[in-house]
């Protein structure tokens, strides 16, 4: 099974488990970090996520991942965590939910001398992100964007 297939199948399995735990599924990632694979399930809830909810999802999902269909999956570490305050926006629904909020856009290489910019999320279209900074809107193309996260305002 390839990483995309693993992610898709885990999403199918974990959605009902999230509902049972009173949280929603934010994201699933299967990536190699250093020399080890990480299967990360990120959950969310408007009131915030607590450790018991993460544990409930993890304990319910873990035996499902021991099933035969996952036998050819490389060894990995399962992590179930909250999306957190500075959550990464990846899916169209993430961008729609936080339209008008302050975000940080990180770039693969500097754009206008900056590796990162903060502004108001003004648009999202097929991976292109529109930011408003000081009253001016700029569209950043997906090929240039490394990550988009909610800005933490203290």
Automatic annotation (TrEMBL):
Q: Where in the cell is it found?
A: Cytoplasm
Question: Start and end of every Ribosome maturation factor RimP C-terminal domain?
Answer: 89-153
Summarizing the function annotation, the protein's role is: Required for maturation of 30S ribosomal subunits.
The record, for Pfam families, names:
DUF150_C, RimP_N
The protein's predominant localisation is: cytoplasm
Q: Which residues form the Ribosome maturation factor RimP N-terminal domain?
A: 13-85
The protein's name is Ribosome maturation factor RimP
Q: Which GO cellular component terms are attached?
A: cytosol
Name its species: Agathobaculum butyriciproducens
One GO-annotated biological process of the protein: ribosomal small subunit assembly
- InterPro entries from the UniProt entry: Ribosome_maturation_RimP (IPR003728), RimP_C (IPR028998), RimP_C_sf (IPR036847), RimP_N (IPR028989), RimP_N_sf (IPR035956)
What domain of life does the native source organism fall in?
Answer: Bacteria
The entry assigns this protein to a family as follows: Belongs to the RimP family.
* Keywords assigned: Cytoplasm, Ribosome biogenesis
């Amino acid at each position: 099974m390839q990483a995309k297939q693993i992610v898709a199948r885990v999403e199918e399995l974990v959605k009902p488990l999230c509902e049972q735990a009173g949280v929603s599924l934010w994201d699933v990632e299967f990536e190699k970090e250093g020399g080890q694979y990480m299967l990360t399930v990120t959950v969310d809830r408007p009131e915030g996520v607590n450790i018991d909810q993460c544990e409930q999802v993890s304990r319910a999902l873990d035996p499902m991942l021991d099933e035969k269909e996952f036998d050819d999956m490389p060894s990995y570490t399962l992590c179930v965590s909250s999306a957190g305050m500075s959550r990464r926006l990846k899916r169209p629904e993430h961008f729609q939910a936080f339209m008008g909020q302050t975000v940080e856009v990180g770039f693969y290489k500097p754009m206008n001398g900056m590796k990162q910019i903060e502004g108001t999320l003004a648009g999202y279209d097929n991976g292109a992100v529109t930011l408003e900074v000081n009253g001016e809107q700029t569209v950043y193309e997906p090929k240039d964007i490394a990550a988009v996260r909610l800005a933490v305002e203290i």
